[in-house]
Amino acid sequence: MNDTLYHELALTLLPGIGPQLTRQLMSYGGSAKNVLLMPPGKLRRIPGVGEATVKALTGPEREKAFRKAEADLKKAEKDGVEILFYTSKRFPSRLKLIPDAPAILYYQGTADLNAPKSVALVGTRKNTDYGREQTERIVRGLVPHRPLVVSGLAYGIDIIAHRAALQEGLETVGVMATGLDRIYPHTHQKTADKMREQGGLLTEFPFGTPPDRYNFPARNRIIAGLSDGTVVVEAASKGGALITAELALSYDRDVLAVPGNLGSEASAGCNALIKSNKAAMYTEPPDLEQLLNWDAALHQSGKFKAAPSYSTADFTTEEFAIITVLAAAPGRELHMDDIAWQSQIAIYAVASLLLGLEFRGVVRAMPGKKFALV
Questions:
Q1: pLDDT attached to residue 361
Q2: Residue 185, preceding bond cis, omega within 30 degrees?
Q3: Would you say residue 285 lies in a domain?
Q4: How far apart are CA 145 and CA 170, in angstroms?
Q5: CB–CB of 201/192 below 8 Å?
Q6: Which parts pass through the membrane (predicted)?
Q7: What's 21's domain CATH number?
Q8: Is the dihedral of CA 110, 115, 117, 118 positive or negative?
Q9: Same domain, yes or no: 10 and 67
Q10: What is the mean pLDDT of residues 192-215?
Q11: What is the torsional sign of CA 322, 327, 333, 339?
């Protein structure tokens, strides 16, 4: 059994310790094992740690978490499930860029979660024939780019998107609001089975987690964070698809919406997104290609500058880790604290490394301790 992953998993299974507190504890403890063995007095000196957290980390709940972690690791190995702590190199790099990223993920599938291109398709659970037709049309338009198609495995637009991707030979990942052993809705079991072989299933919730209502908004942030852009096909004036769109916008990700007939409740949310300039209008594949810079012709014309390539031979391991983090956010600057978190390098070391890279002309510094690749 992987001792490091065992302690990381146990830490995330403790009650009251969410992703942000997990990262806070890790920044002080250095490792999950150190956190779980830390004495109460030292825990109390960590900002944000109260008595409830101390009790969870040192009392009977800790032993329950250890037992659950051991059982879950055995089940994961048996079922071919990969458990990814946020410090893992295989943890999706796009998710590391969002402030409320999950601390751990359970993944079962064959797709690369760090695929070069990724797009989310979301919408109402009560789709119309128009919504079905547009979803299938959008997926067909994606085929030349071979992106990872992300959605939520729910009724309506979600499952239509997954099935269309499977039909077109595209890899598709379903982000779940349950444990991987609880396919919801159960009627999508056969599609989920196919996705394990041509894409995957992903969740932050441990085995046995039921489809509780409050899990779905949390699931939506992963859909938005895992994708370069989100396309809303049909959405009512309120609902999960609009939540996903708002989350994508808050993460500085592009949002597109398919317009619908005026007066159609199924398209009211999409029309509102377009009217308020929160979403670009999707009418044909070039709309998405140009917004996400996927249009090869535009790149060849020189309108967009190609990202520079770097060789590991020219940099130290830590320098290249910083370059990799900055390269994952092209055209955007990152704060020094974000660089430290995403690269898993101590903040004092990051400051020195960035200075060295700046002198070499690899990165440029901007006001507010922000940096970007040159």
A1: 87
A2: yes
A3: yes
A4: 10
A5: yes
A6: none
A7: 1.10.150
A8: positive
A9: yes
A10: 96
A11: negative
- CA-to-CA distance for 197 and 80, rounded, in angstroms? 12
Two structure tokens written together for 150: 């992300």
Provide the pLDDT for residue 301.
Answer: 37
CA–CA dist 141, 321 (Å, integer): 35
Round to whole Å and give the CA distance between 371 and 175: 32
CA angle 118, 103, 2 (to 5 degrees): 105
Split into its structural domains, the chain has a count of 3
Name beta bridge partners: 254.
229
Instruction: Please compute the mean of the pLDDT values over residues 358-368 and round it to a whole number.
Output: 87
Cα 205 to Cα 177: distance, rounded to the nearest angstrom? 7
Residue 193's φ and ψ, nearest 5 degrees, are -60, -40
User: Which stretches of the chain are assigned E, i.e. beta strand?
Assistant: 82-85, 104-109, 118-122, 148-151, 172-175, 199-203, 229-232, 254-257, 280-281, 334-335, 363-366, 370-373
Q: Rounded to a whole number, what is the largest CA-CA distance in the chain?
A: 63
Mean pLDDT for 114-121 is: 95
Residue corresponding to tokens 């065992």: 6
For residues 226 and 253, is the Cβ–Cβ distance under 8 A? Answer: no
pLDDT band at 308 (very low <50, low <70, confident <90, very high): low
Tokens 């535009």 correspond to 298
Task: Give the pLDDT of residue 368.
Answer: 81
pLDDT, residue 330, reads: 54
Residue from 91, 36, 363, 98 nearest 225 by CA: 98
Contact (Cβ atoms closer than 8 angstroms) between residue 151 and residue 172:
yes
Which has more pLDDT, 303 or 358?
Answer: 358
Residue 298's pLDDT is what? 38
The residue among 92, 153, 97 whose CA lies nearest residue 118 is 92
* 94 found inside a domain: no
Which residue type is seen at 328? A
- Beta bridge mates, 280: 256
The CATH number of the domain holding residue 162 is 3.40.50.450
Query: Computed from CA positions of residues 270, 273, 274, 280, in that sequence, does the dihedral angle turn out positive or negative?
Result: negative
Residue that the structure tokens 């830590």 belong to: 318
Sign of CA dihedral 173, 177, 180, 186: negative
In a domain, 333, yes or no: yes
